[in-house]
Write a structure and sequence with these properties.
Ammonium transporter fold; mainly alpha
Amino acid sequence: MHYPKLLPAVVALGLLAGPAFAQETVVVVEDAAAAAPSFDEIGPYIMTTLLFCMAGFLVFFMAAGFAMLEGGLVRSKNVTMQMTKNIALYSVAAIMYWMIGFNLMYPGEFNGYVGGFFNTTVLDPVGVAAADAALDYASVGSDFFFQLVFVAATASIVSGALAERIKLWPFLAFVVLLTGVLYPISGSWQWGGGWLSEMGFSDFAGSTVVHSVGGWAALAGAIVLGPRLGKYAKDGRVTPMPGSNLALATLGTFILWLGWFGFNGGSQLAMGTVGDVSDVSRIFANTNMAASAGAVTALILTQIVYKKPDLTMVLNGALAGLVSITAEPLAPSLFGALWIGAVGGVIVVFTVPMLDKFKIDDVVGAVPVHLFAGIWGTIAVVFYNSDANLITQLIGIAAYGVFTFVASLVIWLIFRATVGIRVSEEAEMTGLDTAELGMEAYPEFSRG
């Protein structure tokens, strides 16, 4: 390490010791100062590593947001199961992304297709020299952590859609495959220097790479799993199944909103220049505007359509706005972010009931928010990014959709035919908290 402020004191000590020693001391100090890299050399490494760490902390906190949102939107008899699934899926994702995912997604040779299986991630050596560190744009540890929290968010999307009727262990087995294999392979196509990246596909922070992947996996699971008991009557009526705690769901939404600043801001992937820092702040402002527009749009639309505002739609409207701006949060003006987010709010209000018409039971609205709004956000890139074109964006959307949906569908069907993925009717009626876990989130209250 280097301590330039101490150099005068070192020289002074040398003078006290005598002229000869002082001369040798000055030479050593001057050599050390000359060898020390300047901040211009190591500053970008330090600042970008800091960006990854801070943004990673925020995206990690989104795990709490997903847990609170899901816990509030499921019935009280299933809350403990959602808490268990969310802490377990994050932990499984962390291990699988270290064991397989990171080096599968980011092949060292950048072959553009897929890296090596079981090529575990190795961190920077302890006390890495600043001069060596300056050769890379950020530490391996910060890069790995930042990418890890994204894959965990993808798994959380699946958790909410399949709530209240799926067994714990088959769900976690799917998370192993999603976070260790499926997400890293498809992610390498764009963020690992793969074929979509070379084609010119643009997805800044993951409207498609992250959110639609989670949405496609959730959609496949919901189709194979089937709806909750009593959700759809024979005459076509939809039976409302209100969540247990809308205050908790609202808290979860605000936490996700906060975490999204790290999600999009950190995806700048650099903070070593004035321009980079300015861009990060621009991304923050656009991200916030899109979320606000999505929420307000859903608020107004539900008043018009249902004659009363619907809080759950407003919450999902905010999230849809966030997903919509994620593919290009840097280039738009604030007005651009507003209308992109507003369209996301419209999408949610009209596609949530559309799924019910097909008797696809998505408990928290994950498919409309993450899949449909993710597709929209990826298309919207062409309005503000001159390097993107519609055909390439559609090819990317289709590639992720076909791969993730088909692979997930096959996995869910295999699980259903072998170990089973759905709890018994009795367990579902009793509630997964008691039937699967033997504990309740609200034991002092009657179950709803």
